[in-house]
Design a protein that fits this description.
The chain is α/β, with parallel strands linked by helices. The protein folds into 3 domains: 290 residues, Glycosidases (TIM Barrel); 53 residues, Oligo-1,6-glucosidase, domain 2; 75 residues, Immunoglobulin-like (Sandwich), CATH 2.60.40. The protein has 14 helices and 18 strands. The protein has a 7-stranded parallel β-sheet. A 5-stranded antiparallel β-sheet has the order 11-12-13-18-15. A 3-stranded antiparallel β-sheet has the order 4-6-5, with no helix packed on it. Helix 10 packs parallel to helix 13. The chain is globular, with a radius of gyration of 24 Å. The model has no long low-confidence stretch (mean pLDDT 95).
Length: 535
């Protein structure tokens, strides 16, 4: 992908939780505009030049914006279309590209399309959604499950048929086999791209195509009912998603993107461990190598260890080669925060890893200051995932708590009580407190994003360092003029390593404890360094 060549990273913003300007306790578009200087354009900015906004469309908020009732408007909760236009203009003035969420698989049940579809079997939009007759005994057409728990089918007594919802009941699946649906959803893309949007993040694309015969999914022979695991995986999802037309549909989307200059689309897809990983990635990259790519989410499940991370990165880099661009994610709105998953010291190392790997890093708001999951009391739970599958730890509210701008009341996010409780860590973890603290997360992210201006870190090749072992993971970034070595001591013990080069430490997570004597490097516990080879 040659587009967005000058983007050094993408910063994901969850609008509800970023900055509230009108005092209702919910973040808004004006709040994002207000904080653009924090992201880029000033000497003390984060220094990242693309943002991705989670949904801000009209929605009954059953799934907090991923149940869209109007694809071509702004939810009054977040502002107006003029507010969005101003955000685009102000972002572009600071050399920030804007990516938005696009939800192609399903709408809200309050969308006018579904209201028409549901009105009668004869309605012209009936086939815009997936309707099927019951089995002879009145049960659902097959055994497909909803991601959020229970059957993926909901019975409509008025028409005597079931409609399909791969997610919530209030999120009926669109029928992408219908060319009218495909045309309408391409029109949505045109609307936002003409407004000046630079990129599209396509949500939940794996569900867009299903088995045309609607066969039952087989049971998962490895599922353990005694373990507290997601009941969705009691089945192997072989027929309810990843159908035969998926990549044809994605090509139609990418063709729209390609018709505009310097626009891209990134597909949300969590690889299925039951299928070949290499082929899954290659299929997504092959959709349109000029404008399209998938995210890489494997870092969410990779255990924190030098050997595990080396195995993951080495394999993926070898699989995609030197032409395809990686989009590594280690945090997002659907997964526990990085600090909460691996620990505070360890999260710094993963941050250093992400910002020195090839491709374009995608950073979730707050990870750059070391935010951790908030504690959500039962009476404050909002996420339908937690409500429908309680007690399994699947709720996503903890990673969606308000951005911690300061240690003032409500973390400087709002002057009113926020929609979710602020995480307790705001008293010690916040933007203002970290801005000039050389030992902070924010200082590290700013420094490394600045280093990514170097050609070798943006475009250089990746090569394993052969000195890697069970404690230390290392790799080179190289171009015609430079060689950079990154070393990550992912153990709790200090160590000394001979790296075989006469180098200069450009960045260290332990600046006061960094030492390089000749070709020997002293690494403290959970210590990472970036070394330039002096040739």
């Amino acid at each position: 992908m040659k587009r967005w060549q000058n983007v050094n990273g993408i910063y994901q913003i969850y609008p509800r939780s970023f900055k509230d300007t009108n005092g209702d306790g919910i973040g808004d578009l004006a709040g994002i505009t207000e904080k653009l200087d924090y992201i880029n354009g000033k000497p003390d900015s984060l220094g990242i030049n693309a943002i991705w906004l989670s949904p801000f469309y009209p929605s009954p908020m059953a799934d907090f914006g991923y149940d869209i009732s109007d694809y071509c408007a702004v939810n009054p909760l977040f502002g107006t279309l003029d507010d969005f236009r101003r955000l685009i203009d102000e972002a572009h003035a600071r050399d920030i590209k804007v990516m938005i969420d696009y939800v192609p698989n399903h709408t809200s049940d309050e969308h006018t399309w579904f209201q028409e579809s549901k009105s009668s079997r004869e309605n012209e939009k009936r086939d815009w959604y997936v309707w099927r007759d019951p089995k002879p005994d009145g049960t659902p057409p097959n055994n497909w499950l909803s991601v959020f728990g229970g059957s993926a089918w909901e019975f409509d007594p008025a028409s005597g048929q079931y409609f399909l919802h791969s997610f919530l009941t209030k999120q009926p699946d669109l029928n992408w086999a219908n060319p009218e649906v495909r045309e309408a959803m391409c029109d949505v893309l045109h609307f936002w791209l003409k407004l000046g949007v630079d990129g599209i993040r396509a949500d939940a694309v794996r569900w867009m195509s299903k088995d045309p015969e609607f066969r039952d999914n087989p049971l998962n022979p490895t599922y353990n009912p005694e373990a507290k695991t997601d009941p969705y995986f009691v089945q192997l999802q072989t027929h309810s998603r990843y159908g035969p037309q998926l990549f044809a549909y994605l090509r139609q989307i990418s063709d729209v993107i390609e018709s505009y200059p310097d626009r891209i689309v990134i597909f949300e897809d969590y690889p299925d461990a039951m299928l070949d990983l290499r082929s899954q990635y290659s299929d997504f990259y092959a959709v349109n190598p000029h404008v399209a790519a998938p995210f890489n989410f494997e870092g969410f499940k990779t255990p924190y260890s030098a050997m595990e991370f080396r195995r993951f990165i080495d394999r993926f880099q070898a699989d995609i080669g030197t032409v395809s661009r990686p989009f590594y994610c280690f945090g997002n709105h659907d997964n526990p925060r990085l600090v909460s998953r691996v620990g505070r010291e360890q999260a710094k190392l993963v941050g250093l890893l992400q910002l020195t790997l090839p491709g374009t890093p995608v950073i979730y708001y707050g990870d750059e200051i070391g935010m951790e999951d908030g504690m959500i009391p039962p009476d404050k739970v909002h996420d339908p995932f937690e409500k429908q599958t309680p007690g399994l730890g699947l709720g996503r509210d903890p990673e969606r708590t308000p951005m911690q701008w300061s240690n003032e009341p409500f973390a400087g996010f709002s002057r009113a009580e926020p929609w979710l409780p602020v995480a307790d860590s705001f008293k010690t973890v916040d933007v203002i407190g970290e801005l000039h603290d050389a030992a902070s997360f924010l200082y590290m992210y700013r420094a490394l994003l600045s280093l990514r201006d170097m050609h070798v870190l943006r475009f250089g090749s990746y090569a394993p360092w052969e000195g890697s072992d069970e404690f230390v993971y290392g790799y080179f970034r190289e171009d015609a003029e430079s060689q950079i070595l990154i070393l990550l001591n992912m153990s709790s013990e200090p160590t000394m390593r001979d790296v075989g080069i006469d180098g200069q430490i450009m960045y260290s997570t332990h600046m006061l404890e960094s030492a390089m004597i000749g070709s020997f490097v002293a690494l403290q516990a959970h210590h990472g360094v970036v070394i330039r080879n002096i040739r």
